[in-house]
């Protein structure tokens, strides 16, 4: 690739429900050519598709209506700090306020995300092809990032452009095989397009020219960029994860498996619980706790100690089941499955 050119598409004007985006874009940019990539702000896609809700213009009624809309667009809450809610939408996107937007729209409406951004991109690409130009399409929106300040545009939907550039299996100049490198190309192009669109310039579409292979074939869309639950290591905010851990600790099940417990993990759990020297360890699978104070108050403290130990074991990924007897408790420990 020798380089990219990023061009604003000016003169599209205000978009309303039912507008033909392909007609608006191709009329404003008659210079479009095969292989170009359209980076289209999701807001005009939503407006054309009628994805707006009416709300009061101001006051507490507006905030109440906005909260109701947010709840309807939310699959689950990821994190909440004061008035800011980071949620997972029904599409699977994790973003502030479910992507609901009150900017660049009259005060009596809120703009929702497109119902299916990938499908929106496919329709726009097909409509452009019907007008004689084969392009790739990216439907973009602005998101924050968990580890960095500032916002950037990303791809919510895409068509006619491969979402990834996969370097896995390639050899770098030092002879190392690349094993994890998949570049999210459509996110990179979405961010590049934002540089010429801006937020207040009423330029909702950019064209990226020079990216190889764009517009040539059907592609999977942006949905493949979404992590599934099994691979998501950051599915909750810090405070929410802490609260979930406390709830888990308060409701530990009695569980035993056939998988052996790791001896080092058991040792760490005993230390975490503050019970070094108080727990006998015949084996990593069997812990013996003895009640030294048999008064009612002492036995209550003993029960709390045992539960604290089981919580520490759970934090190490270990399952446990406890059996109490006249002199103490035996804790069966195993690897969780």
Structure, described:
It is a single chain. The chain is α+β, with helices and mostly antiparallel strands and 337 residues long. The chain folds into two domains: 5-51 and 114-238, CofE-like (60s Ribosomal Protein L30, Chain: A), CATH 3.30.1330; 252-335, Alpha-Beta Plaits. It contains eight helices and 16 strands. A hairpin with a 2-residue loop joins strand 13 and strand 14. It is elongated, with a radius of gyration of 28 Å. It starts with a strand and ends with a strand. Residues 13-210 form the Coenzyme F420:L-glutamate ligase-like domain.
Indicate how many domains the architecture comprises.
Answer: 2
Compute the CA-based radius of gyration: 28 Å
Strand content: 25-35%
SSE ordering? EHEHEHEEEEHEEEEHEHHEEHEE
What are the segments in which pLDDT stays under 50 over at least 5 consecutive residues? none
Strand order of the largest sheet: 1-12-2-8-9
Largest sheet, strands/sense/barrel: 5 strands, mixed
**CATH architect. name of the largest domain:** 2-Layer Sandwich
CATH class membership of the largest domain: Alpha Beta
* CATH homolog superfamily of the largest domain: CofE-like
How many beta-strand elements? Answer: 16
* Shape field: elongated
Our count of helices gives 8
| Rounded average pLDDT | 93
Topology:
Elements: E1 5-9, H1 21-28, E2 37-41, H2 42-48, E3 52-54, H3 59-73, E4 74-81, E5 84-89, E6 94-96, E7 109-111, H4 117-130, E8 136-145, E9 148-159, E10 164-166, E11 182-184, H5 185-197, E12 205-209, H6 238-250, H7 263-272, E13 279-283, E14 286-290, H8 296-315, E15 318-324, E16 328-335
Helix pairs in contact: 1-4, 6-8, 7-8
Protein name: Coenzyme F420-0:L-glutamate ligase
Pfam families: F420_ligase
Domain Coenzyme F420:L-glutamate ligase-like: 13-210
